C-alpha cells in the first residue's frame, strides 16, 4: 500500500512538476519579451496614474488572462518590477485563476447560468475589494521588487556605464550597455538577448517554488483520499462549506481537474455550496500556488491573499447554497 501511494505521489510530482516547468518557462520568456518591447515607463506611468482604479484594472486584466494559478506568477513578477502597486497585483492574482473566461465557460458547462453568474460576481467583486483593502492597510508595501526578484542588470552581463542623458566617458573599445535599444551593433538585435536573459533570471527565481508546489501536489494526491472529502463535505451545512474551502487549499485543483472531481463528489451527495467553495479554495489559493506567490509577495501580503480567497470561497458557497 505504501509503495502504491509513493508511486502515485511520484507520478503526480512528475506530471504536475513537468507541466509547470514548461508553462513557467514559456511565460517567463513571454514576460521577458513583453518587458523589453513594451515601453515599461509608459505602462508604469499609466498604471500609477490610475492607481486609484488599480484593483479594478487588475481584476479586469485577470479576467482576460486564461492561466492557471501557478502560471500568473511570472506575469505578477513582471508587474512588480514595473512598480505596479500591491492592490493591482493582488486583484490580478485573485481574478486570473478564479474568474477568467476559460474558468467561467467550464463552470457554466457544469452548473448552468445562474450558478456561473453568482460565481463570477462573488469572485470578481472579491478581487476588487481585496485589492482595494490591501492599499488601505500598513501592508500595502508588502511586495518584492527590483533586486528582491533578481532583476539586476548586472546579471545580464551589461557593463555598468552611465547612459540615457549622462555624459559617457570615452573608452578604447565599445562596451555593451544596458540602455534600451543600445548594443555594440544593433539595438534591435540586443533586445531579444536581454529578454532571454531576464527570462532566465525569472525562471531560476521561480523554479524552486514550482518543485515545492509539485511535491505538495503529489503528497496530496496520494494521501488525501476522496473518502475523506466525502465524509466531511457530504452535506449542505455551513460547516461543510467552510471545510470544503479549507480542504481546497492542500488540493492543487486546476479547473480541468476540479470539474471531473466535483461531478463525482456531487453524484455521491456533496452539496452545491461546498462544491463551489472547493473550486474557489482549490483553484484560488492552493498550497502550490501559495509557495509560488511567496516568491513575489512578502509574508503579510501572502496571509492577506490566503484570507481573501478563503473568505471568497465561503461567501461563494453560502450564496450558491442558500440564495439560489
UniProtKB/TrEMBL annotation:
Belongs to the UPF0718 family. It comes from the Bacteria. The chain crosses the membrane at residues 12-33, 53-77, 89-111, 117-135, 206-226, 232-253, 265-282, 302-323. It is found in: Cell membrane. Keywords: Cell membrane, Membrane, Transmembrane, Transmembrane helix. It is a multi-pass membrane protein. This is Permease.
